[in-house]
Amino acid sequence: MKQKPPVKAEEEIKLAITGFGNHGTGVGKYKDFAVFVPQAIPGEQVSVKINQVKKTYATGQLIQVLKPSPTRVKPACSIFAKCGGCQLQHIDYSAQLNLKRQSVIDAFERIAGISDVIVQPVKGMQEPWAYRNKVQVPISVDRGKLIAGFYEAGSHRIVPLEHCLIQPEESNVIFHTIQKLIKEANIPPYNEQKHAGLLRHVMIRRGTYSGEWMVVFVVNGKHLPNEDKLISHLTNDLPQVTSIILNENRKRTNVILGADNRVLYGEETIHDQIDDLTFSISPHSFFQVNPVQTEILYKQTREYAGLTGSEVVIDAYCGAGTISLYLARYARKVYGVEMVPAAIADAKRNAMLNHIDQVEFVCGKAEKVMGKWFDKGVEPDIIVVDPPRKGCDPALLHAASKMKPKRFIYVSCNPATLARDVALLTKLGFTLQEVQPIDMFPHTSHIETVCLMSRTENMK
Length: 460
Ligand SMILES: C[S@@+](CC[C@H](N)C(=O)[O-])C[C@H]1O[C@@H](n2cnc3c(N)ncnc32)[C@H](O)[C@@H]1O
Prior knowledge:
Blueprint lengths: L11 E9 L5 E5 L2 E5 L7 E9 L3 E11 L25 H20 L21 E9 L2 E7 L6 E3 L8 H16 L14 E8 L6 E7 L7 H11 L3 E8 L11 E7 L3 E5 L2 E5 L9 H15 L6 E5 L5 H7 L4 E6 L2 H13 L5 E5 L2 H11 L5 E4 L8 H10 L3 E6 L2 H13 L2 E9 L9 E8 L5
Parallel strand pairs: 3-5, 10-11, 15-16, 15-18, 16-17, 18-19
Antiparallel strand pairs: 1-2, 1-4, 2-3, 4-5, 6-7, 6-9, 7-8, 9-10, 11-12, 13-14, 19-21, 20-21
The structure holds S-adenosylmethionine (SAM).
GO molecular function, one term: 4 iron, 4 sulfur cluster binding
Pfam families: TRAM (PF01938), tRNA_U5-meth_tr (PF05958)
Keywords: 4Fe-4S, Iron, Iron-sulfur, Metal-binding, Methyltransferase, S-adenosyl-L-methionine, Transferase
């Protein structure tokens, strides 16, 4: 018979924090019952007020740190305790990297039953601030007034954006100027509960190497009021903005961008550079958010691929073709697949921009296209996958195994789905060789991981 949880909501308890949970929370056991506490650190003794009690665990609010961890530091951001954007600013950066590495090791052990894998120390940043090249700011109403900022952790309440430290300073300046202009223009903010009002999000994207900036207004409608006047003020105040887009999103949804874009000013895309390659990026295309670490991530992928120039490579979930083109310079042929049409259009344009012709890009679901490539007799030496957080569809992993590549490289932003997929891949004939975590998202609980798998010898 299952025991009743030993805690109640609102109860205050003392807890020893012994683990690090998925979202960067501290975890302790209270009478053998797991309690998750944001902003508590493994090794600490804390007092906690219980918020929610579920069947198998509870969550609590940190009331007091009774015995602090030596890794505890003062968060640099004044709204860290409220804003849901960062989870780890209270932990010294090198300790963040150790905890993230351990979370990858734990995921392999707990989910895949793999305990003997080599997980390298995390490759972190020298300067772990001001790294994000993209910000998506929700707009809402608070007591009749427009409010813009970031969501509080686990809610859609907005904490006003003042000065975000993981964005470059210029991004903060651009955002505040836009906020002033949209307030002056009396643009009706979106009300999520009522699905009424106009302006839902402002997305700001930076081409780090080109210096170009894109601003996307996401609206529950077709136009902004006095559009021409707003654009004229915006481009006057912010000459670095080279692309202004209106994105129409009339759905009652959490998905930020709607399907349709209209260019209000300048170009449809901005440009950025990785290594010596130039990329054109449109609003709907995925592009890694940390340009410094992207170079490290792609270099690692290339190293694991061990390319000599004669290989055929598949890059599944290829976005704007960045990994495909990065690797194509060292391979005979690269096939890329991606389901967002705008990203594939970017990928094809990027191949031309960089004069790379040994690539073939297909728009479609990777799990379907891989099967078609197998039927057509495509024989990759190397398969690279870089799926979204939910990981790979099993159909893709089965098709990959039938193709018998020598190496399978898994780039992942979610250790849990990575471990789940690696467990299946080991059953399908691959052996996990090495794992390299890379910190693409300092001060948040997220960690990127590159894994090298090779075909298990003597398997049929
Ligand atoms: C993590 S991003 C990786 C993009 C690219 N490799 C890069 O480094 O910029 C994942 C990509 O997978 C795409 N995607 C998601 N599900 C997919 C599917 N079932 N088939 C193909 N692409 C998919 C997304 O649109 C996104 O571009």
